[in-house]
Design a protein that fits this description.
Layout: E1 9-14, E2 18-24, E3 31-38, H1 50-61, E4 66-71, H2 81-97, E5 102-106, H3 110-120, H4 125-151
Parallel strand pairs: 1-4, 4-5
Antiparallel strand pairs: 1-2, 2-3
Helix pairs in contact: 1-2, 3-4
Function: Could be a nuclease involved in processing of the 5'-end of pre-16S rRNA.
Main location: cytoplasm
Enzyme class: hydrolase
Length: 152
């Protein structure tokens, strides 16, 4: 078994309002939805926001060996405002969960793919909004896991 696949990892889809979180099995084969967290935009600059504190708790609870955060690169491959925001969030998360590594990965179209898959399963409207962030986090983590397997 290759080094990348050992241990549980969390996948994170960072949004302005919510953070979708997924988890993979210890073998690094399959990503599944875990939870959607509300973004805490009200905490003081020196305080750890509630969403980051919850991610720290999830990392500890599941003994995660890494966290994969989606980087929303635009279709031209450029980093827009959403990518800058995701990098900032990933850096803050890395500080909160150190020494557990945080990896950024291209998440182009993950929310679109997740929404489409949910709609194909009959999940629409308010029900879809409630889980689309988790589904996008699954897409992010599963794509990363698949890419790691292809490299070995």
């Amino acid at each position: 078994m290759s080094e990348f696949s050992r241990g549980v990892r969390l996948g994170v889809d960072v949004g302005q309002v919510r953070v979708g979180v997924s988890i993979c099995d210890p073998g690094g084969i399959l990503a599944t939805p875990l939870v959607t967290l509300a973004r805490d935009l009200t905490s003081a600059d020196d305080a750890v926001p509630a969403d980051l504190a919850e991610l720290r708790r999830l990392v500890a609870e599941h003994e995660a060996v890494g966290v994969v955060v989606g980087l929303p690169v635009n279709l031209a491959g450029k980093h827009g405002p959403a990518a800058v925001h995701a990098v900032s969030y990933a850096n803050r998360l890395a500080d909160v969960i150190a020494p557990v590594p945080v990896t950024l990965t291209d998440e182009r179209m993950s929310t679109v793919v997740a929404s489409r898959r949910l709609a194909e399963r009959g999940v629409r409207g308010k029900r879809q909004r409630a889980v689309v962030d988790q589904a996008a986090a699954v897409e992010i983590l599963q794509s990363w896991l698949d890419a790691q397997r292809r490299r070995t």
